[in-house]
From TrEMBL:
One of its GO terms (biological process) is purine nucleobase biosynthetic process. The gene is purD. This is Phosphoribosylamine--glycine ligase. Keywords: ATP-binding, Ligase, Manganese, Metal-binding, Nucleotide-binding, Purine biosynthesis. One of its GO terms (molecular function) is metal ion binding. Its EC number is 6.3.4.13. Belongs to the GARS family.
């Protein structure tokens, strides 16, 4: 039996999901709401906002939609899955109460502590004055090294996390989050936690609340500049697999982090179904949780789905039905893949929109290359930049070096005014390989 699919969202993750689901023998047509210029080619865009719950539900009912996939975190936290399920639709993604694992860092940290899951020590504050007093009581001089991370509690598009090296930076971070409300309502509570050291890695898993299917580890690149310098972004590139995470450590992550979290969510009457994304720091004391997300990461999703050979529609339907245990695992292409994000000039700060983009078709025509759109739209027949992160140029190769070379060859074919990218995506993997 075939059916139509509706994907909610407009970023690179949603383009990758649409591209992969369109390959399923079960899927007739893929709709994306609201989508971007790329999903308009690989699927059919629908002019509905991701917060228009009633409109999305009505569209799904009118168009024989047998699977809805909610891509971004905001509609998950807002309860779109619950509303769609109440309307009798089949939806892949966690419920509103389960999505609080990402929607509230305070909730997440408290759950990790109660389940004895390794994470950084932390304190939470409802008042910026109390948070400032905490820092001032412990560090008396402006230049005192503090090595803490100050976080906004709620969703902040990946930007509400400020790493601080001295007292002045910590106080300024608290002021930005709690007093100036730079991240809006996300700053209603503040977390101050110890700064962990070690390589970061992302481990994503699909779970139906009983069975956990772990995906190959990926490594994101959050800072804007080469060598992990500059301000944090939503992610400037990723590669998969990440050799820094060996099989033994991955097994520790599954048994000591993923399984306990799924059990803890069930005990707290928030059973989790969907994608569980663990952002980890590989510390000298072992892997520790930095954060949990409740959806596919962007840009980790792009190299992961580029390698996935199993029918994604079947996996999502099995998750909805609680049948993941019946599947014979997941199959991935053995070749590594790399995604290089091309961004607008000025990102992650202010940037100009509306510049025509050239060369996407030339890059897409290359062997083992797929250009996933994120911040794009069609204007007068031209693809233009419409966001900070604009494209995710993704490539596979027999080795990480070969995949990197192919990805950057594709990047070189694409141009628009102010386009830029990091030049060192996946170099961490080469260091990891040479160190083993």
């Amino acid at each position: 039996m075939s059916y139509n699919v509706l994907i909610v969202g407009s970023g690179g993750r949603e383009h990758a999901i649409a591209w992969k689901l369109a390959q399923s023998s079960h899927v007739r047509e893929v709709f994306v709401a609201p989508g971007n210029a790329g999903t308009g080619v690989d699927a059919t865009n629908v002019d509905l906002a991701q917060d228009d719950h009633a409109g999305l539900i009505q569209f799904a009912k009118n168009n024989d939609v047998g699977l809805v996939v909610v891509g971004p975190e905001a509609p998950l936290v807002a309860g779109l899955v619950d509303d769609m399920q109440a309307a009798g639709l089949r939806v892949f993604g966690p419920s509103k109460v389960a999505a609080e694992l990402e929607g509230s860092k305070v909730f997440c940290k408290n759950l990790l502590r109660s389940a004895d899951i390794p994470t950084a020590d932390y304190q939470t504050f409802r008042s910026p004055d109390d948070a400032m007093r905490y820092i001032k009581d412990r560090f008396t001089e402006p230049s005192d090294p503090v090595n803490v991370v100050v976080k906004a509690d709620g969703l902040a598009a990946g930007k509400g996390v400020i790493v601080c090296e001295n007292r002045s930076q910590a106080l300024d971070a608290i002021d930005r989050i709690g007093a100036r409300k730079e991240f809006g309502a996300a700053g209603k509570e503040i977390i101050i936690e110890e700064r962990l050291t070690g390589p970061e890695v992302s481990v994503l898993a699909i779970t139906d609340g009983e069975t956990i299917l772990t995906l190959p580890a990926a490594q994101d690149h959050k800072p804007a500049g080469d060598g992990d310098t500059g301000p944090n972004t939503g992610g400037m590139g990723a590669y998969c697999p990440a050799p820094v995470l060996d099989e033994e450590t991955l097994a520790r992550v599954e048994s000591g982090i993923l399984v306990p979290v799924v059990h803890a969510m069930k005990r707290s009457r928030r059973p989790f179904k969907g994608v569980l994304y663990a952002g980890l720091m590989l510390t000298p004391a072992g892997p520790k949780v930095l954060e949990f997300n409740v959806r596919l990461g962007d840009p980790e999703c792009q190299p992961l789905l580029m390698r996935l050979k199993t029918d994604l529609a079947e996996v999502m339907q099995a998750t909805i039905d609680g049948r993941l245990g019946e599947l014979d695992g997941l199959e991935f292409d053995e070749r590594p893949s790399i995604c290089v994000v091309m961004a607008s000039e000025g990102y992650p700060g202010e940037y100009e929109k509306g510049h025509p983009i050239k060369g996407i078709a030339d890059a897409d025509a290359m062997e083992n290359v797929k250009v996933f759109h994120a911040g794009t739209k069609m204007v007068d027949g031209n693809v233009v930049n419409a966001g900070g992160r604009v494209l995710g140029v993704t490539a596979m190769g027999d080795t990480i070096s070969a995949a990197k070379l192919q990805a950057y060859k594709a990047v070189a074919k694409i141009r628009w005014q102010g386009a830029w990218c990091r030049k060192d995506i996946s170099d961490k993997a080469l260091v990891s390989v040479s160190a083993t």
